[in-house]
Every structure is written in C-alpha cells, then in structure tokens.
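Hey, sorry to bother you again with one of my protein questions. A protein chain has come my way and I'm curious about its shape. I'm sending you its amino acid sequence along with the backbone structure tokens. I owe you a coffee for this, so here goes:
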Amino acid sequence: MRPMLPALALALAALPFHAEAPTQAPAPAPAANGVKPTPPPPPADGEPKPYEKVITSEAKTQTGLFKVHQVKSKLYFEIPKDLLGKELLMVATATEVPVGADHVGKNVNEDVVRFLLKENKVYFQAVNHAFVSDPSRPIASAVEASQRDIVLLAFPVEALSKDGAPVIEVSKLFTSEVGDFTARQVVNATSMDPSRSFVDHAKTFAGSVRVDAVHTYSLAPHTIPGLPPMPGQPQPPARSGSVSVAYDIVRLPEKPMMARLMDDRIGYFGLSRVDFGSPEHESKRENIIARWRLEKKNPSAALSEPVKPIVWYIDKATPSQWVPYIKKGVEAWNVAFEAAGFKNAVQARPFPTKEEDPEFDPEDVRYSVIRWVPSPIANAYGPHLSDPRSGEILNADIVMYHNILQLQRDWYITQAGAVDPRAQKLPLPDDLMGDLVAYVVTHECGHSLGFRHNMKSSSLYPFEKLRDGKWLKEMGHVATLMDYSRFNYLVQPEDKIDPALLIPKIGPYDIFAVKWGYAPIPEAKTPEEEKATLNAWAKEQDAKPWLRFSTPKAELGDYGENTEAVGDADAVAATTLGTKNLQRIVKMLPKMAIQPGQDDHALEELYGASWGQWTRELGHVAAIVGGYDSQNKHGDQPGAVFTPATKAQQAKAVKFLSEQIFKTPTWMFETAVTERLSPMEPSVKLLNAQRYVLRALLDRARTTRLQTQEIAAGDKAYRVADLLADLRAGIYTEVLSGAKVDPLRRNLQRAYLAQLDERLNAGTGPALPAAFTGVTMPFGNPMDDTRATVRGELKALAALFSAKATAAADRTQKAHLEDLRDLALKAVDPKVAPNLPPAMSPFRSGFSEDNCWPDFTQQ
C-alpha cells in the first residue's frame, strides 16, 4: 500500500518528553551596600529579550538539529545560523484518530520549508519545486519568479543565543492550520479549534525534529448525503474529533542524489515537476522515481555490498513468533537487488541495545521501523519519505496491524484450503501463519522500496502453467509481489503441488523493476544520459509479457487489470477451477470451524469469506465484457495499445455467469453449514452476489465500451443488445419455457428489472472516465446511447410477462409475472419512473496505494 506523497513514522501513544538537565543562568550578585541592583530597562518593542528571560531555569532543553526548549506550555526552537535559509522537509502524519475516521498513519501534508531570518523576525516559508529549468537557459529567472516561496507564518525573535541563533516560540505552528498542514480531511471536519489543541511532546535528533500535537476539530453533523434536513426536526448536535499529528522536520541531504527519470512502463512511485527548459515546443512534465540511495563499496565489482544498506528495525512489541518471518519477508528482496549489483542490500534487525547504538530512537527518521500495532483493523501499509529534489527515500516505516492475521487466515482457507491440509483445521499452525506474515511484509517492503501496485501482472503468465509444479517453483503463479494476486486457488488436489508454492514470492517483474530502478549506469553523468539504457531495459517487456506493468488509463477496461485474481489471462477457466475448490472448502467448513464449547463465529466468518472469494472471482469474469487487453508502449514499439476482447470471449463470459451465479448455486446451501446460520442468511448472500454481478455487467462505463467496440467492429462486436439478450435467456429461463419459478429465482428476476430501471432512469453521471477526458461533464456521456436499447428491452420484457401471465395456471406464478410486468412498465413510464441518482460502479476505477489489504471477503 502506498501513497504518491509518502508518510513518516507512526507512533500510537504519546511518549514522555526527554530532556537534558536544564542550564540555569547564574543569579545576579547583590550590591556591596545591600541595595538591590536596578533591573535593566525592558527591551524596545520588537527587540529580542535577554536569553535567560526567555529560556528560563524551568526550560527543558534538548540538543539536535535545532535546540528545542519547552517552557511550561510553550515550545521554542533555537535555530542554528547555518540552518537559516536552508531547505528542510516537513511532514505531518496522523498517528492517532477517532473511531470511524481515516486510517492511522495517513500522510496529512508534506512540503519543503525554510526558516528565514530578517531583522527581528523569522519567516516560515513553503518552498516550491513544481517548476524547473536548466539554469543556463534565459527562461530560468522567469521560472523562479513564477513560483515565489509562500510565507506561512512569521515569528518574532524572542531572544538570541550567544552565537546569534534566533529563539522563536513555535507552538502556533503545531496547534493551528498552517498552509496545507491540516488534518481536517482525516475526520471530515468543518473547522479547527486551537483552544482545544496543544503540543503534546517534542524530540530533536541529529538530523530531524519531531513534534507531536493534538488537534481538535468541529465535525460535520451526521446527515444522509444528498438529503436536506427534515423540516421541523432539531439540528443534529455538534460533534468533535481529536487527531494526534506528528510533525517531522528533516534536514535534506547536503548533496542531492542524482535523480532517475520515470518511465510509466515500470511501476515506481515518483515526484512530478514541470520542466520549462526543455528543447521541446511545450512545457514538459518531468517525473522522477522514488528510490533509496545505494552506492557500491566497490564500484568496479559486478556484485558489491552497498556503502549504506537499507535497514528495517523490527519493533520490540512484535510477537516473538513472527520476528523470524518478518526478517525473512524483508530480506526476500535481496535476490532482486543482486540482479542490480548489490549484495545484502536489504536487512532487518531487532531494535539495537544502548551499547550497540546509543543514539537509536524509533522516532528518529534515520531509522526505518517495522511496527506491530495492536489494532482490530485488518491491514498493513508501507509509506515512505523522500527528498523532493531527487526522489531519494530517506525513511520508510512499515506498519502491521494485528488483525492482518485474521484476514490472511480467511483468505488462505478459502483459496488454498482444498489443497493444503494445514489449512483444514483451526487454528492454522504457526509455520503457515508465519509464511503468510512474511508475504505481507515482503509486499509492504516493496512499497517502501518505491514500488507501486502492478495489478496487470496476474494476467500475464500462460494460464496452463499455473498448475505446473516446475513453472511454479521457478516463476511462481504471479510475476510480482506487488499485484493483489493472493494464493493460487487454481491448483487442484490431483495436481499434488507443494503448498509452499501457493504463496506469492519475489518474481521476475520484481527482479526486472529493481534492476531498472537501482542498477548503476556509471557512464551516465546526468538523468538524461541514462534514458537510452533505461529504454533498452524497458523493451524487454516486448518479448517477456510478465515483465509488464499496468497500462496508464487501464481503468478504461483492461480485463486483466483485476485485484485478488490468479490466472485472469482466462478468467472463465480460472473461476471454473476456483469454484471447484470452493465447493470442496464449503463442505469442509463444519468439521473445521464447529468446535466443542465454542460458538459458531468462525463458521459464520469463513462462510462469508467463501461467498466473498467466489464473488470476486465472478467479478473477474464480468470484467471480460466490454474489456480490452492492453500493453503500455512508447514510440519505438509498434502495434495497438488496447485490443478488445472478442465477441466469442464476451459471450462465453456472460454464459458462464448465467450458469454459475444466476442459476442457483445449490452447493452454497450446504445443509451442515446453513443449519447453523440465520435462516435468511444464505439467500441474502446469494441475492447480494447476483446484484453485484448484474450491476457490474450493466455499469455505464461498460456499456459505453461495448458501444465503442461496436463502432470499431460492427456486427463482429459483442453489442449491448447481445448482452441484454443473453441476460434475458439466463435470468428468465423459466418464464420463456413456462416452467415454475422458485423463490430464489423470483428474487433474481425482480433484481434484474430493478437494475435495468436504475440503468435507464439513474442520473446520467460522468461523460467518460476521468482518465480519458480529464474532466467530468454533468450532462452525461454523449457516446452512450444505450438507454434506448435498455428501454426497448424493458418494453419487450413487459410484453413477454403479460403474455405469460395470461396463460399461467398457478396462482403464485401468475402473480409473479404480473408483478414483473408492472415493474417493467413503471420503469419506462416517465410519469412514474423516478430520476434516480447515478449508480455507483461496483468496481474501483483505480487502486488505492493506501490500503493494500482490503477485506472484500464478507458479502
């Protein structure tokens, strides 16, 4: 999981203020005649006071990047003269949030800042690096003038030290909203209340200062989105929320690392700026990748240890049984770094003792920490902090929430339980759970090394290889740890595959991407001189599809750009195999989850997880409809970027869905399971899954793509009319044949009409995906004329229901058909049909880098 602008270290509890013994100023000696000396006149307005009058004997002082003094409730910075005017990086991170707020560890803001002394004031400025230009070009001065540094705050100089360092009182910097440094969005607040905000504690280190503050906000009232307050009803009570925010002010490297220019064919986080000094006939957006500074001890050696390895320290709060697996998960990346020429580049160590490193403090940005957080949230994430001038990663903490164990347990059972005997009994053994923890750590470590998610990867291996033991041992079932491809649910019991091969591992894409981003190119002295070599490396993707990264604008419909997928090069075949395994797993659940003397919580949870797993797999099939295969290409790579799925592929996908989810899956109604559940639960889960698939198939973006494919291919395309005809045949099979309709199918048939109604009458929604147009047009998509087709289908269905109702002899059957007729007619009647708000797509248009482990298991 990771955001484009990374965050710093997480601290869940306020730590005590650690101070050196304060230095007391000597008391003035009494006069010889016993008369008290005359106090010096007060300083003129705006003039600094005597040092000892500001930094009194009560001050708690720490020495580091700045001297930090805490005098009662006031916080002072004493800024060395050599740091005045120097660029620093300030990062704000939410470290504690109220229940129901955004996640802990969220990056609030990050800016390059400086403290600038002018006369008796210190100005706190935000420094902009958005525009760049070759300093030798005439435009350089204009570029600099177009991004004037912003003065965010002005502090009066309270005192001067003996060496002339200004002392300023900085509490308001951390207890008010300064520039974009606000946690308002974390809690959906309307305003901040400084009177209920305060500095909690501060620490200073050799290269950074950390200040922890508590911010209190007034929150928006609880209302239903889109609905005005009810007349005559009392206003909802005012609400508040407090957020703990950690501010880190970091000294940037004296000499920036040479940046490496980004190539969108390889998935790195990066930093963006506009280059006005380019020889091209327009301003050019330049992106640089985020990566650690790795330099060889022996530059001439093909394989050398780095001057400074990348080290993660394992939180001492981590349960001891998982520590070896966390180390294993981190150091798994070394095989990739060896391909880039570095030995033992990535390391994991326990917290050092005072004897080993007397300066160690997990809040110091010089140390990257893997933290174990006692939270019921099932998640983990790996943010990073980087130098905006060069992309150099300076710090990258990894956070593991305790309940990631529960999520991994549920996923492994529902994906691998049919072929791994260890996953057929609760609790899972520690060796298995340890390997699952290591897998999570390796993925999060990837983010902390600079890598983005690569959802395309799971569809790039030849499908037939994913049950081949030799292939799985050499290549794995997915080419990268950075996909949301979990455990190999295609393997069948008869394949007799070693269970160790079911868990993703470092793959060929990971090795390729590490080499591309980290391997030195010694002959290049500038980022531009590296481009030819980097382009040659990137073109290896042509011959080896599994080295490819997600295509930009893949949300336009790449059917291989799925989350939680294995083998989606052929999602129908993959889901067929996955369904066979789920049928086995559901039968296992009673024996596995029903324990003497315990309630049925585990059974209910795993049954829900089974529905969730199956629904996700069905979603991979739905993605084929209106879908494209894609490969990101640059100018010297011939051929199309997007290739549509064939008409036969799409028709096969809809037929599969009709047979699997629209036809009642009786295997999900296993008596030994359902007799322990609420009577309605299985049928509700079925209807929810059916609605999910229907909404996916009739999603406005999907029907727009079907129309686009029809424009290009005519009758050779799978059209919206073909989709509706296939859905009619699969959903109204009994109506067409005159057979009796059972209650579960009656639910589905009504749900389909409701979905057609929503598709016809919902607000027009966005014109095109934002990635295509860059804007959202409120008048709807001018390319989508499928409303006419949907309207025609509803009218045809109404006529069908009317005719069948007349001939129906069974009272229940007749009433059902008449109800269907009325629902269809109301949907097309403008006097009756409401103008519904735009429907939400069941699929994400993009992937959050914040949340790597979304729990979609419960349906």
Q: What stands out?
A: The chain has 24 helices and 25 strands.
